[in-house]
Amino acid sequence: MTTVQVVNVSLPALSEGWSAEKDFKAVGTLSAATQRNLEPVGPHFLAHARRKRHHRTFSEDERIQAQQNVKKTEEEEDDEISEDEDPMMLSRDAKDWKNQDHYAVLGITKYRWRATPEQIKRAHRKKVLRHHPDKKAALGDRDENDSFFKCIQKAHEILSDPVKRRQFDSVDEAADVEPPTKKEAAKGNFYKLWNRVFESEGRFSKIQPVPKLGDDNSTFEEVDNFYNFWYNFDSWRTFEYLDEDVPDDGESRDQKRQTEKKNANARRKRKVEDTARLRKLVDDCAAQDERIKKFRKAARADKDKKRLEKEAEAKRLAEEKEKARLEEEQRKKDAEEAAKAEREKNKKAKEAAKNATKKNKRVVKGSVKEVNYFADGEASASQVDSVLTDVELIMSKIDAEELAGLAERLTAAGKDAAAVKNVYAEESKRLVGAGKLKEGETKNF
Amino acid sequence: MSDGTNGAPERFAIGISFGNTSSSIARINPEGKPEVIANEEGDRQIPSVLSYIDGEEYHGTQAKAQLVRNSQNTVAYFRDYLGKDFKSIDATPCHNSAHPQPHESTVAFSIVDSTNETPSTVTVSEIATRHLRRLKQSASDYLGKEVNAAVITVPTDFSDAQREALTASAKAAGLEVLQLIHEPVAAALAYDARPEATVTDKLVVVADLGGTRSDAAVLACRGGMYSILATAHDYELGGASLDKIIIDHFAKEFIKKHKTDPRENARGLAKLKLEGEAARKTLSLGTNASLSIESLADGIDFGSTVNRTRYELLSGKTFAQFTGLIEQVIQKAGLDVLDIDEVIFAGGASHTPKIAQLARNIFSEKTKILAPSTFTGAINPSELAPRGAAIQASLIQEFEQEDIEQSIHPMVTATPHLKNAIGVEFTTGETVEFQPLLNTETALPARRVAQYNAPKAGGDVFIRVCEGVREIKVTKPEPKPKEEKPKTEEDEDDSDFDSDEDEEEEIREIVWKTEKPIAELAVKGVKAGSKVELMVHVNADLGLQITAREVGGQNAVRGAVQAA
Fold this sequence. Notes:
The complex is a heterodimer. By secondary structure, chain A is mostly helical. Chain A is built from 15 helices and three strands. By secondary structure, chain B is of the alpha+beta class. Chain B folds into four domains: 11-173 and 385-409, ATPase, nucleotide binding domain (Nucleotidyltransferase, domain 5); 197-235 and 319-378, Nucleotidyltransferase, domain 5 (2-Layer Sandwich); 237-311, ATPase, substrate binding domain, subdomain 4 (Actin, Chain A, domain 4), CATH 3.90.640; 415-475 and 504-559, Sandwich (Substrate Binding Domain Of DNAk, Chain A, domain 1), CATH 2.60.34.10. Chain B is built from 13 helices and 28 strands. β3 (34-39) of chain A pairs antiparallel with β20 (414-417) of chain B, so a sheet runs across the interface. Chain A: Keywords: Chaperone, Cytoplasm, Stress response. Chain A: InterPro entries: DnaJ_domain (IPR001623), DnaJ_domain_CS (IPR018253), J_dom_sf (IPR036869), RAC_head (IPR032003), RAC_head_sf (IPR042569), ZUO1-like_ZHD (IPR054076), Zuotin/DnaJC2 (IPR044634), Zuotin_N (IPR058871). Chain A: Residues 101-172 form the J domain.
């Protein structure tokens, strides 16, 4: 802030008798200041912040700012002049342009394929200013040799034409970075060393940007993407620059054609070689890449884990199956046993019933015998036979339960002939009522 | 060629003013002037509204129109909810749109923002992110370049939590917040960055009259640096208060004709609000505004007009509140209206001519009232904040984030400010005059240079550097008072102001008095008619270096005054 306020007020004249050392006299101090927050906004605040942070005074800050501004413009002008010119290069023959390093001639070897057209233009201009033949003559250089100037012009011609520049960049071995040996890479510089290689190789890629090698912490996708990119590398590299000169005299057309053919073959061969070289390079890198091993290991561990899990699962399933089978067997066995017991029980009950029936039959048959076949005195054979036939008939018509009832009643009747006869009569009557016996079928009851 | 520079994307910053009612985006155009960018619809004031229909997002004016039909899924007036908990927010402005709800420690809205029917809970941070993303998109589309950084303006009462929430929301929207700057300072910067502006020491009142709230701040502008001396806020006063007057006016007219109150019906009220706001804005430019609404209530179409006089009569009280806010902030800063050099009107409601005219009456003739109706060179009040932000963005765009943080660190911003003015005392015969050179509230360290006339006869000159204080001198009535207080209905608001000015016809002026002398110098042998240059440098520790010499002369008188 150096704007000057102009105040249109006249200062008073010095009064008589005032005097001080060096014409200055401090007579007071300032009142205490109030602390406030400045709003961090605006160019003047930024200047204030700069002064405060770097502990500069107003005039210092102004000077430094001014210097910085001046420096900037200067640097822009001479940033590329710093490269030394090799005396060997200065004495080059311009006819041998195919073997010359155009970037070195223009003094931009630190940029090479990275140099922008603007940088190339500026570098060329600077070199022309220095090496123009007229200038040399004016300086009294008796040499009169303008071959280096021709080199400069040739370099500019090639580098300023995008197609020609690509052709030169394709064979610019000075820009290549040798892949590190296994030993070098094993020292822990794997990423640093290989990254340089791939950065330099990446200049040939038609697809930009080229994926980076990354570092130890790269994810599987990144690494996979990186190697996929390099195994499917799409290169614009061509080898026309190394072509043999095609004779352009109209006489030997055959020779011309032959050279062209040879050139085309050589190009193709070189391209194949280059592709193979790159492939081997990527193979080498992949072989040394710890990350791939790591991922493989992780994948294997993952697989193992899955397999183990699967096995455990299978085992568990088998066990469950076995258990189910055993349970089923046990259940069957139990059921069988139960059925057997049931059968036994039935058999026994049947036998018991049979026995009871037998017994009842005996009782029934006996009952008539007890009462002497309803005869008074000795029963005749026919009498016995007829009664027994009747009893048999009744017995054949009734089932076990009724038989039991009959037997019971007969037992109750005991040896009373009339009662027994009565029981039989009732029974035959019931049977007749039920339609099982015909009236008069029993002769005695 | 195959140049593989694919590092971090280049920073491309814009200025954003993110308001409750509307937001703006601005950039510095290739000519170096700030310029507010219009969005796809051509709006420079983009309503801060988001609306969702069938999962489709509407933004700005389109979303605002949805307040009528789709109010439940329309989010508006959400800026002030950022970084606050539900208890401390004022939900009144959202009465007509999606209602805020408590959600964990923040505020959220329940809206149907996708194609499925169930409403989802969207936090206010997420809403802000979506809003900022749309603003970023509009700016990127306009500029044809991805915008990835911004300077955003915030009110002076924005808390740290709110700042953090806003920064996080912006980050989620893909915007790196370079800096959050205060709205009044951005407005002042927008004026001071005009090419015709010169760096002067001045006291500025920035009246930011927004849509739902109004803020005022007193800034001390010293050598291009700003310090806020006082702030005042009115959270209920704003464009909406003026809209309400228009709405009530038309509603009464409607009731008179049709016996129903359109304000009782939510949709009717929304329609009235939209149209009323448009009418109010029209009245800022023209003297007549017409309003016509189809099917306002009970299917009745309504059309009417209102003229500016009627509007100003109805709004007298509200206008007085605006001017009252300005007076309040000056009083809070411990200053007098006479101290104020500039009044900057910012915010949408500042377009209202009457408010600026009323302010004109409060201040003295020398005070510049920077509003469209009082000053022809005024910048559109709605564009001040975004312009200031854009200027700041262009200044710090190149800086590293760390650099910015260091620069806005309290270590740098907290500075001592002069309590009293430092100046030169002139004694001519009996009268003693004081000319301030460094004003009060100048941030230290500071340096000022001034040239004074030498006595006509030349010879030895005496300079007495003093501390001075200003006093308000009140002179009793004279036939023609130069300054007159506005005697309208706002009298009740500024009783404090009246107290020392009961008689209406007083002359009030600033008089400088010498408080205490600091140093005395003598410049000897000055030629007649030449000038004497005085340079005063005040250190942060209150020490002074004083240099005086004749302009063009070789010999300088130097001296230092030690700190107390």
